[in-house]
Amino acid sequence: MPDTDPIVERLEQQIKWYDDKSLSNQHTFRTFKVVEIISAALIPFLPALPIPSPQSTWVTGGLGVLITVIEGLLQLNKYQENWISYRSTCEALKHEKYLYAGNASPYAGAQDAHAMLAERVESLVSQEHAKWV
Predict the structure, then answer these.
(1) What is the number of structural domains in the chain?
(2) Is pTM beyond 0.90 here?
(3) Full domain range(s) for residue 31
């Protein structure tokens, strides 16, 4: 595949974008979930600690608020769903890249494999965009 080809450049840019966004959403989701799990685990443990009651109540309440806020952000921003969707699109784009590079089906018998690559790449990207609509 030539490096200066705009179709291949677009493919590479899209693979990078979806890969980066997938990793970012995965990292954010996992970080929030770890904080949420630790916070939830601390709540029943706090009464056993030698902390004065008013401070213990505030800490327990604060952890409850933190859990609620994190869960709200996870639902609102859909980090896990985006992570999976972006990863799926990234892998589909990589699949097209390797089929094209190897002149494998469906590109093997195509009259214009290059145009077919452009159509298939844009189709995959359009499907991702359609999910947002």
Answers:
(1) 1
(2) no
(3) 12-132
